Fold these 3 entries.
Entry 1:
Amino acid sequence: MATILCIDDQAAGLAIRRELLQSKGYDVLIASDGPSAIALARQHSVDLVILDYRLPGMDGEEVASILKAENPACPIVLLTGYPGEVPQRLTAIVDAFVEKGNSATVLLAAVEKALTASRMRRAQSARLTPKRDTA
């Protein structure tokens, strides 16, 4: 199953998301700040990121920019309680946007949709990439 990196400075929210995602069969990594999240993404094969916007030290836009630069194919779901503060530059980077306070079903649907789209892009890319002759 997919590995999801959840980034949020609120420990209670991280614990709830970890439990929810693990109950659906996902492997879950958690980080409470941007630098820790980036380090985890560099150490592990991450299939999707759930990212809070308001983080200590680095905001969600900085984190998303670094993660996308290092792994452009990894989808990011932005999850925030402050949708009015999110700059348009960030919404252009992320693959989905979920407002905190929505039901778990909304978050799970965004995760599954982003993962499915990512799988389809990888499959299409594999079909379009010429095979090299190893003989």
Entry 2:
Amino acid sequence: MKKILAVLLIVCCISLSVFAGDFKFLFKDLDQHTELLYGFLPTLIQAGASYEGLELMPLNLTQIQLSVAGGYTQRAVFQHPDTGKPLSDLIQIYDVVQIRWDLEFLQGLGESPVEGKDLVTVYGGLQGRWEKALDSLLLNGGGIPKPSDIKRDRGTSGKIDVSSIDKWFSEEMEASSTRENSPIYPDFSANGKVTNILYAGARLNLMDDRWTTNDGILVEARLMWSPGYFGMWANGVWGKTLFDKKADNGRNIFSVVVLDRVRFSFLDGSGIPVFVQSSFSLGRNVRGFNSNSYNSNFSAVNSLEVRLAGPEFLFNGIFPRLNIFFDAGYGFGNYFNTGHSSVEAVKASNFLASIGAQLEMDFWDMIDLGIQIAYIFNKPNLRKPATNIQIGATFFLDF
């Protein structure tokens, strides 16, 4: 693993020095650990470079992108490790140390009505990860808050479990699974696991995105495959600027934008790792709920949002923004990693909805650092079920 990463870094550095003028900095991802400064401290960054020196088609952009990442984050899982049935108690919190690499080729096709953009971009690549699951920082009193803060009363069901991973598998669940052979969690190996995913997709870009204003349509679809599972998703975003006031120097004073996003997804297989489950889970895509909760093969989510942005005080692209949202989604099919091999299918049917607001500082539409308050309907947030009001840190917009 270390050799692979070292080779990728060396190739990237050599290429940058030889063709520096054709490269652009690439920022891909940012993540946090919930128990370190309450989630406001970035603990994972993914960045790299995009080579744009090729011109396979006149007037259309050709890109080769390479990015790498490393970091330390936290996760929670919400399915029984043997049966895959959804859990309402003894939810396991654990930490993950990870290294990522992503090699991608993108080719523009046609000219978009939006100046400077290709009408369609087709792409494909290889996404890889090495991950190792570790006991939570909270286990030995580490992290902020302390264990006493996170072990909340769950009525008659007990408390969130911050015990060791091995204990959760072998004792608390009274199951035959261990971290090495769980049919529901194939990536809990004590020595870590490497996963590589092939993917391909296409993006139709009719969106005039000027940071504080959005007008048009953006549609994207992606297919992905890895041994043991496959998935697909499609996003559609519509935006309309209702009000836009600029200063004499061109900086935004105040703008009002309405957006609507629709997302459809499908994921199935016998060995879906947790990090893949995260982006496909219904709980991840309806704000106020948890990643890896309400997992199901199929999901459909609609997000309606009004954005109040500005002013840009000192620099273009840096400004405060208030996002008021209403999300609703439905998930059905089987819970992840059930219905295969020796695991009986566990049927899923969940409707989630939330309303709320995000108050954040936007940095060039790359990072949106702030706080989110959501009121959730119908179903509970499984980590904090005692209240319908959910508060947390934000890093990114949701499309």
Entry 3:
Amino acid sequence: MNKITILGAGLVGGVMAKDLAKSHNVTSVDISQKNLDALKDFNIKTICADISDSLILNKLIKDCDLVIGAVPGFMGYKMMYDVINAGKNIVDISFYPEDPFGLDELAKKKNVVAVMDCGVAPGMGNIIFGHHNSSMEITDYECLVGGLPVKREWPYEYQAVFSPIDVIEEYIRPARFVQNSKLITKEALSETELIEFDEIGTLESWNSDGLRSLIKTMPHVPNMIEKTLRYPGCVEYLKVLRASGFFSYEKINVDGKDIRPIDLTSKLLFPKWEMKEGDRDFTIMRIIIKGKENGKKTTYQYNLLDRYENNTISMARTTGFTCTAVANLVLNKKYSRVGISPPEYLGGLFEDVKDYLLERNVVYKVKKNND
């Protein structure tokens, strides 16, 4: 059996550990003993440690065959650097803001397979993109995606499965998209639209910085955009908080102490956004790809509506199982490209990932139209 070390045992990291423990020897590492205690009944070795210390991290991963990264975004780049520098293959969902290709040369030097952004979006959306890029001339790519609580509760109508600071990053990081082959940058939360979805109803979409690696790896595609989905009305209160400085990283002095407003905000919001016992969520994604295939104008539409199932939140299922699918492909040497790999590079293995997800009842429905 392969030895896998998972860095991070939060809501998504824990789900990945349970999934992989069915067929591998899994060690889960987290600084929170509470997170690790939730894994005690699943044949998973747990270690409480601070992996921000490079020496500690190196000791923890020295005997493993693969590392899974599931740490908060602000820790992600350094963690991935340390893992690659130790010569270990890694599949990561940390979604850090730094440019991952800055690690490509090191990964090649160390002969390391390093798959980044391997969640739902970015992640599965990119794999779908890469799958079609090999067989058609794509002109348009649009991804609408969101994870939402079933119960709409005032005032936020939202719950988070990632660290609060990572969620807030979506609300402040400038959104980049490609229009008519030009890179456009607008502020996050801009250009809101109301979109109708079967079974769910009306949701609100807005510009977010979700294209990430696609901007670099798919320069031939003239139109690409990703938007985040929330319940209608969400954007207004987020803009108020942002404009008031609650999301700022700039330190302010309060009674002689320097604090970052974002740290205070995340502390205040986490208990209000936290998934609690009995809470349910769903993940919704709509991808539309347009272009020419075999000389004909063709449109593909992928729809995902995944719900809380088997005591597992949907966002953890859709994110975590994509990552574990790719982890198995790397372990089985079905994917062995050395260097930094954004998930679109795995387009040729789309069917493998889709089938793995289907076995876990994460279902992507596809429609094809010839215009």
